[in-house]
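Troubleshooting log. The previous run stalled partway through. Resubmitting the same two chains, unchanged.
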Amino acid sequence: MNSAEAPSRRGLLLKAGLLFNGVAGVVLGVPIVRYLLSPLMSGKGADSESWLSLGSLDRFPAGETRLADYRNPVEYPNDGQTANIPCWVRHLEGEKFQVFAINCAHLGCPVRWFPQSGLFMCPCHGGAYYEDGSRASGPPERGLFEYAYKVENGNLLIKAGRMPTTGSPNAGLVSIGKSPCA
Amino acid sequence: MERMGAWFDRRLQLAAPVREALEHPVPRESASWFYVFGSAALTVFMLQLVTGILLALIYEPSAGGAWNSLQVLNHRIPLGWFIRALHGWGSNFMVAIVLIHMVQVFLFGAFKFPRELTWLIGVLLLLLTLGMAFTGQVLRFDQDAYWGLGIGASISSRIPVLGPWIVQLLLGGPIIAGATLSRFFALHVFVIPGSLIAFIGIHLLLVLKLGINEWPMPGRIVRRATYMQEYHELTKKDGVPFVPGAIAKDLIFSGFVLLALAACALLFGPFGPSGQPDPTIIQTVPKPDYFFLWLYAVLSLLPPSLETPALLIGPVIALAVLFGLPFMAGEGEKSWQRRPIAVLTILLLAVGLGTFTHLAGIAPWSPVMNAWSKDPIPAEYLKERSAMERQGALVFQAMQCHNCHALGGEGGERGPALDRVALQLTYDQLVRQVIQGGGNMPAYGKNLNPAETAALVAFLETLHPANQPAARDASRASQ
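Second attempt completed without errors. Output:
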């Protein structure tokens, strides 16, 4: 009798032990996973994006395209220079602007503006865009990413806060063609 | 001394199994110079551990401080530059040796029964090694690292549905910033090396348990039913103990690799860092490290519509082939002399990767951003030209045509060189091409006034050898 009972009691204890550790695992695991996924929580939707000033309108002469930069809205003390994000501002006329992300729509390299030929050129894989941001040639499949903008108290504001990538829907970014100033 | 050893062994009881492991029999022919790459990879890995820890004494894993701490290492800490150089060159050596090891294993049929698991772990070790190389490049937090991360994020973003989430997890936030560097630091210093050590342990255990692959003889066929017995007979009949029979060549080669590595570090110095990781400095031409150059070329040369499918499906196929290999070809001939497809595959891969890497060194697809202000038009193209033609040459420079089109061998190679363009296109075709673009050239219609277009085309019309007339439209007698 003893020999039949002993293993079952031991077995029960083993099961209880496993269950107990399983519970402990969940108690510890949930906060760990929550911590690991925190970048998803904090950057959800438009949380990470806000209206930022690029400076007064007279920094951007009409008919010209100028480089501007802003400090990313979500920043931490150790971000250093990486939170300074550049963008290209094209002033068409009056209060009509186009503000392009610096990142090539191909793989994100910084595009450069050439006023003489009216082209943005990318140094990485050879993408080129016209002055209105539309695709001119090379590997990009679309035009430059464009920020939504507004003019307030003589300042140019854009909605920004997220690095634009081809695959991500960008809440604050409008695509070329549907641009409010087109 | 002996008594102290005995005291420890009585408690640890490791002497016998260690001796057994060291003296395990190796087929005599496998004690060869072809079988030294695995141990060399391990040697370089241990050097990486040591130099990595040494660098961590100074390196500051923060976006605001990393670049400066590398400057301190390079210029202020005595021999800091040398440790950095050893670690950087160690990385290149390790990738290279792991690849050579893999090619040798593949060509010698060592992935076949019963060593399938050894191969699978080996593939994991290759991926982890490449992971170390990429994350290490990120820790050298300079312009290349910053924009390289952007490229990594852009590629990840194309994964259907999950893409944007993966980008956020990869970057640790909505942009490349402090959190990005911290997580790559954790990967490079804890997660990947930890996995490497664990998997290297299993890899070595499997080598000990299953024995080192015998020298493949053409005609000696691997069969699951009989292989183990044949192998044991071989090692019994014609085997040597690993120590001292086979280890001598491993030791000599490892020593040679370490010295070669030190020589490279001494002569060529550390890698970078290039410019500061300040995104507002856009005068940069980011390029990946050597072992990812081929990918840079592939991304430039694929047709745009094929790019996303190739990026997403390519790695899946490659991994499926690598992981499936020992199961698809677990038996049969081991010798490369009887496996022509295996040899051709390696040659094709080597030529392909070599070509892409070479092309990435030249990057003909990238416009030369400063060619329009730097590269002159050859003097003979301007001699005895009319004012209008010379004006056209000015337009050619001012409109950055030179960034993509070479003249006299200087300038970009994104578009064709134009030294003989007048032979190929008539006046009307040139006008159309300039104004409308096409064939991967932007249209310049909006940015050139008629006078500029006329001058530019007049200049282009002069670009033909003296003894060959420019192309003309036969239907127009007057031209």
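Takeaways: Chain B has a mean pLDDT of 93. Chain B has two domains: 22-362, 371-461.
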